[in-house]
Design brief:
Length: about 550
Amino acid sequence: MNPHQDQGRGRPDNRDRRDHGDRRDDRRDGHHGAGRDAKGRERSGSRGRGGPRRGWSQERPSERRRSTTSSRTVAYDALRAVHEDDAYANLTLPHQLRRARLHGRDAAFTTELFYGTLRAQGRLDAILALCIDRPLDDVEEAVRDVLRLGAYQLLDMSVAPHAATSETVALARSRVGAGAASFVNAVLRRVGEKDLPTWVAEAAPDREQDEIGHLAVAHSHPVWMVRALSDALAAHGRDRSEIDDLLAAQNAAPSVSLVMRPGLTDPEELAAAGAEPGRLSVFAASWPGGDPGGAAPVAEGRAAVQDEGSQLMALALGLGADDLVQGPDLHWLDLCSGPGGKTALLAGLALERDADLLAIELQPHRVDLVRRAIATLVEAGAETEVREGDGTKVGAEMPGRFSRVLADVPCTGMGALRRRPESRWRRSPGDVGSMGRVQRDLLASALDAAGPGGVIAYVTCSPHVAETLLVVKDVLRRRDDVEQLDARPAVRAGLLPEALEGTELGEGPSVQLWPHVHGTDAMFLALLRRLPETPEPADTSEERTHP
């Protein structure tokens, strides 16, 4: 099986409908009027105090800019949407870019500023706390976002210091108020006095005394996540010393990977549209940069953006389980299908095997996303039904019906921080416990829904041991009708021939992918199989043999 199949036609991809309006200049000030006289007139530096004028601005108040570039304004508005409205970073930024009509270099600058600031937030806050004479939490959140954007330009981007500061002060003046602008100017002056390594050395604990705390600041992760990721490396057979590389990889901007919908496009068409060959998955292509939404295969729904690690998880069930399923192979199930990327891969592969696919999704708005993801495949003949429902109940409602089941369960997302950097600041250790209960219920339901000889793929985008190995171990301990399979051959079924030799898949039986090893999200896969039913022993009683 490979993507060199017939082509079809589809519909435009889904669009984010969120609309975050511009924030009004409410004149609230994180500095509470510092630098203003009784008449509300603004002062700059030490002017009026008898000494030389030391402020950064050499312009008169009437000459100062009251607005900044569209790029910085868009990055700020997107950041406020994430922090104020709990918006998803990967959904709100494209919307803001389209609304501001930013393209090319401006869009690239905005993207780096926005995502980079989100990733570096913990480290930036630790540095900003050293530059303010009161707790950073006491500063208005809108002002904190302005400061983070300015500090990121000063410490992490190749923006000239005077431009980073003056543009950020102008942003503060236009979005938060003149008083906040004066405060921002003073704080960024202090930030600009030292480079990033010097600030990290001052803000982070000594590594020899507190390694986890040091790494948390240096690589901008919550402390509990650093500890959990270090434990995950060890539990999956890797060396804890890889933690630096792992954290650094989670801060790197990921490349854009495309997935070819089975039977609807091929590598030649993607190459003609500007894509390059994929690295791992037989259905992957790599987009060199920018938004691929204008490419015809993507615009028509015959290709989509999807990490190659996610592709390999779906292909392990859709391709790799061909030799593992025992018995009829007619009905497939996707237990937690939103937003639909893996569902679409399975739908295309099920079509080619004369199987049908039932996709279950709990959240109504994600049901719509799944339907859009599979629309072109349904038009091409895929027998795929999407239902809104609770995956934990499917096993009881349809026991023993399915030959292949994907349980891509909700998780903390600790393996996908490259793409959803805001997750690291929203999650807490308590989420691991609450999600663990749901993950066990979903896996148990998936096992009940599988028929004898059926194969179940348990998938998470988190390497946390409590969400991966412990869930599988706990569920297996409670059942005597399930066996765990070696997932490595199934994953290899989805690999490009040139990637077979150099792709490490560990010691098995489960597979854990890593950003710093595979260049993918940290996806976890365990393959399980319902044991075939044991035939009833033949009745050899005398009554039966001699009626």
